[in-house]
Design goal:
Length: 305
């Protein structure tokens, strides 16, 4: 049986430092985190951005795992080069192959702790369902957004993003660190259970499916001329009703939610998304039946021969 290996990534964005700090402490004491006997590789995703104290050097690393980025292998695009390097080193067919990747992030938005899943890969949904069943974490299903592609976890057979917030960029916070440790150990425990076929999958999975992202109000020159309304700030995961306030301007003008669907906003006023022209994303809460093929895909991946 091929030995399972899990890739653990912190610092995909160089100014998200809580996971990096936890990994550094873990290096000093190998018994700090219980991986339940599962072999791991832990890395800093973007070490140059970490040194610079910035999100990235040339491009967002977590949008660089796509073919055109791999082909741009030059000093003018550090993140494209780094993405290519990581896949060659740790991809399923790499020099030190990993079958599962966990990518740890923090956010300035009031998201609490949550999982982000990209698309509907069977093994991803199975692993996410185990974590939701154990810890009760919400799952943000990001799909059908052609503006946002090239995510790190998509380059591995199975992968989850763990988002924890709110926390300012470049700051350490005890609660964020402890949440990161808890989720990491919980995921490793569940993978161990899958490996030993001692597992319990839930009958249902709750997902918040991405619908669309919206920009801030802007003037004729493209400058932001309104801000997130106080009633919306830090209200991630709370359903919107028609005519709820979204934005306000200094002249008193209000911009309201005009949809008939009770969408649920996430990543409200995330600092790193301003450059992407995103003020928040709308999701639709859905209850899915657990599917047998999800279970089998994860078991086959973890126990592959």
């Amino acid at each position: 049986m091929m030995q399972l290996q899990v890739l653990l990534v912190a610092g995909t964005h160089g100014n998200e430092i809580n996971g990096i700090w936890l990994f550094d402490e873990w290096e000093k004491s190998s018994f700090l985190i219980n991986t339940h006997g599962i072999k791991t590789c832990k890395i800093i995703g973007n070490p140059e951005a970490k040194k610079a104290g910035t999100r990235y050097i040339h491009n967002d690393l977590n949008r660089s795992f796509k073919e055109e980025s791999y082909l741009t292998n030059s000093l003018s695009n550090f993140e494209g080069t780094r993405a290519n390097e990581l896949v060659k080193l740790y991809g399923a067919s790499g020099k030190n192959p990993c079958q599962i990747v966990l990518d740890f992030h923090t956010t300035t938005a009031a998201m609490g702790s949550c999982l982000v899943v990209y698309g509907r890969r069977n093994a991803d949904l199975a692993l996410a369902s185990l974590i939701q069943n154990k810890l009760g974490l919400p799952i943000y299903l990001h799909e059908s957004d052609q503006r946002e592609t090239g995510f790190l976890v998509e380059s591995w057979p199975c992968g989850l993003v763990i988002e924890i917030g709110p926390i300012g960029q470049g700051l350490l916070n005890s609660e964020i660190i402890l949440q990161t440790k808890l989720i990491l150990e919980s995921v490793m425990e569940q993978i161990h259970q899958v490996k030993n076929l001692n597992l319990f999958f839930p009958d249902k999975l709750i997902v918040h499916r991405h619908i669309k992202s919206i920009d801030f109000p802007r003037d004729e020159e493209g400058n932001i001329d309104g801000y997130v309304h106080p009633l919306r700030q830090s209200k991630d995961w709370q359903p919107l009703k028609k005519n709820d306030e979204l934005f306000c301007k200094l002249n008193g003008e209000l911009i309201r939610f005009e949809e008939d669907e009770p969408y649920i906003p996430v990543f409200i006023n995330e600092a790193a998304y301003v450059e992407k022209n995103i003020s928040m994303s709308f999701t639709k809460k859905e209850l899915w039946d657990f599917r047998k093929q999800w279970r089998q895909s994860l078991i086959d991946l973890v126990r592959q021969k």
